[in-house]
Amino acid sequence: MSERVDLLVHGGDVLTVDDAGTLVREGAVAVRDGTIVEVGGAGELRARYAADTAVDAGGCLVLPGLVNAHTHLAMTLLRGRADDVTLQGFLERVLRWEAELLSPGTVGAAVRVAVAESVRAGVTSALDMYWFHEAAERVAREAGWRLLTGPTFMDVPDSPDGRAYGERMAWARRDLAGRTGAREGIRPVLFAHSAYTLAPEQLTEIAALAREFGALLHLHAAENATEVATVEVRYGKRPVELLDSLGLLGPDVLLAHAVDLTGREIAALARTGTSVAHCPVSNLKLGCGIAPVPRLLGAGVTVALGTDGAVSSNTLDVLGAVRQAALVHKADGDPTAVGAEQAARMATAEGARALGLGDRLGSLEAGKRADLIVLELGRPHLRPRHDVWSTLAYAAQSADVRDTVVDGRVLMRNRVLTTLDEEAALADLEALAPSPVQPGGRP
Ligand SMILES: [Zn+2]
Q1: Among 17, 146, 218, 350, which residue's Cβ finds the most Cβ atoms within 10 Å?
Q2: Which residues belong to any copy of the Aminodeoxyfutalosine deaminase/Imidazolonepropionase-like composite domain (predicted)?
Q3: How open is the CA angle 355-358-363, to the nearest 5 degrees?
Q4: Where in the chain is the domain with CATH 3.20.20.140?
Q5: Where in the sequence of the chain do the CATH 2.30.40.10 domains occur?
Q6: Minimal CA–CA distance to 353: which of 312, 295, 297?
Q7: Domain at 3-64+362-416: CATH architecture
Q8: Ligand 1 center–CA 344 separation, angstroms
Q9: How far is the CA of 366 from the centre of ligand 1 (A)?
Q10: Mean pLDDT over residues 65-88, rounded?
Q11: Under CATH, domain 66-354 is a member of which superfamily?
Q12: What's the gap in Å between 25 CA and the centre of ligand 1?
């Protein structure tokens, strides 16, 4: 007598990304109520379980869904509008456009396209720092996608949501207090933009609020030398040094970028259990530099991967970030720096760990949430397949993702999105997107 499950993904090689890096050849994953019930051999699991939905993954690779640990999803609205500029030039333009363009409606439309792009790219969860997070959350919920977001603090004169800085603490407290009974595999988050857009006392009160509610605190830090110099001139300390001196680093803190770090700052991150979201594509494109990831890993810091927003990295392609992470650190002459497996883990198990959700997400193991993807391996660029980590990090492309499952629900099957009207989402965004580039110039 077979046991009922909601979903059985069977026949493909299952790369579990558990601690041992177990690969189950011709394996299967059984899912009930959004939770992985069992991972094992396909023959065995087919005999044991009767599934409402069966996905034949024969000839494919099944792996945990990818985690985007730092992004600004709604920036799809501005994709391609601020290329080949410095971080500071980028911020100056983007902040102006955001003040003009953003509303819950534009954010919702832009996030819908971002979710479609992400599901297609095998990304099953993201940490999203942006204005009007409620609109993003609504869209993600409708699509069945895993979004971690919450109130953002940034002390700028024309905040796009029209909320003065003074009102934000009470608003954020209400938001966190209302998050009872949240979906499994989601946790509350507070976003403090950075040490150059918030004063030390503001950072301190935001961190205290995050700690009061057990929320993850996410900040940009040490993205480039100019940022570090700005903070140093104002407060006499470099950004990570400042956060450490204020007692704001810790295991519930995730820093985006962490490019410009001293050895002492790396040691502080390790000592406090602070994690880093590495965004190699954004860092390269904005000319920020290359984060000292081999040194961070050597010190024992948890390193996740992020794409950053679609203006600074132009796509939300986490697999592309895996490849970049596995390549860019070799530029100094050491081809052993950040190997294929390490890079792929940053986008899965380590990404989940950095979000404080390592026990719920990031690997395919019984008891964890069923966030998984099926990668088709039939195309020439993936053959022959000698090493599965190598295939993932150096050869696979996000377009190879065939099926995407979040919380046991199939959001993309055979490359068709099942919970999102992609055409309508694109049409809505096109209708809202700023005027097209004039021939011979930028808008
Ligand atoms: Zn960012």
Answers
A1: 218
A2: 27-49
A3: 120
A4: 66-354
A5: 3-64+362-416
A6: 297
A7: Roll (2.30)
A8: 21
A9: 33
A10: 93
A11: Metal-dependent hydrolases (3.20.20.140)
A12: 38
